[in-house]
């Protein structure tokens, strides 16, 4: 399946989501890759990771970029050569990118799974969510919080941030589809807009 969904936020950021249903060969034949990207994709042991990597390059093509426009810094953060901001994600059968001309951005797609209940204490004060009695709602909410913090981590782009100590996500209702996220680090607090949506069994969160 080609492009699954496109979202635009007041012309300041654009989100594109791909549902990965094609074979490796179908995805590979439709794009051109740099030597470095060819090495990366062929070194991946998982077919799902390979197809996720290639689907991201198709998303780039959708908005006029190619793999050759994408570079990574020493922390593994992606950048576009023209100076526009980009963030990338892929999880199982979905991939996504967010691009902005003037704002740092982050995006994360996660499959909603019960296992998040076991690790929640590592990334958020779990007592804040004990009032949620519905199991599925709790999994959904924690997945949004995790995705929001992943998105903030990608915006910051370095390896020093701790999910539990340096990032805070304001409480939210599911109907709002938005919340506020903050990075609190080295005496500075930076605030970001967080948006979220559920697509099939997955949750997409993006921040700017």
Concise description?
By secondary structure, the chain is α+β, with helices and mostly antiparallel strands. 29% of the residues lie in helices and 33% in strands. The strands form 3 sheets. A 5-stranded antiparallel β-sheet has the order 7-11-10-9-8. Strands 1-2-6-5 form a 4-stranded antiparallel β-sheet, with helices on both faces. A two-stranded antiparallel ribbon has the order 3-4.
Q: How many independent structural domains? A: 2
The CA-CA distance between the termini, in Å, is 28 Å
Q: Give the strand order, joined by hyphens, for the main sheet.
A: 7-11-10-9-8
The CATH topology of the largest domain? Ribosomal Protein L22, Chain A
Overall average pLDDT: 94
What is the fourth-level CATH superfamily of the largest domain? 4'-phosphopantetheinyl transferase domain
H/E element order? EEHHHEEEEEHHHEEEE
Number of strands: 11
Return the structural class.
alpha+beta
Portion in strands: 25-35%
Topology:
Elements: E1 3-9, E2 13-19, H1 24-29, H2 35-43, H3 47-62, E3 70-72, E4 78-80, E5 85-91, E6 94-100, E7 106-111, H4 116-119, H5 135-156, H6 163-166, E8 167-169, E9 178-185, E10 188-199, E11 202-207
Structural account:
The protein is of the alpha+beta class. The chain is built from six helices and eleven strands. The strands form three sheets. Strands 7-11-10-9-8 form a five-stranded antiparallel sheet. The longest helix has 22 residues, at 135-156. The chain starts with a strand and ends with a strand. The relative contact order is 0.15.
């Amino acid at each position: 399946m080609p492009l699954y969904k496109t979202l635009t936020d007041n012309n300041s950021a654009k989100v594109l989501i791909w549902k990965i249903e094609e074979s490796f060969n179908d995805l590979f034949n439709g794009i051109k890759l740099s030597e470095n990207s060819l090495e990366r994709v062929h070194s991946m042991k998982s077919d799902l990771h390979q197809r996720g990597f290639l689907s991201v390059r198709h998303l780039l093509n959708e908005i006029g970029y190619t793999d050759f426009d994408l570079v990574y810094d020493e922390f593994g953060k992606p950048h576009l050569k023209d100076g526009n901001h980009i963030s990338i994600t892929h999880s199982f059968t979905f991939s996504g990118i967010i691009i902005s001309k003037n704002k740092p951005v982050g995006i994360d797609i996660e499959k909603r799974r019960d296992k998040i209940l076991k690790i929640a204490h590592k990334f958020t004060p779990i007592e804040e969510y004990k009032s949620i009695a519905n199991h599925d709602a709790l999994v959904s909410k924690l997945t949004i919080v995790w995705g929001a913090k992943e998105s903030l981590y990608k915006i910051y782009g370095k390896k020093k941030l701790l999910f539990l100590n340096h990032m805070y996500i304001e409480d939210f209702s599911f109907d709002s589809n938005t919340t506020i996220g903050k990075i609190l680090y080295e005496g500075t607090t930076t605030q970001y807009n967080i948006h979220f949506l559920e697509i099939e069994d997955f949750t997409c969160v993006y921040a700017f």
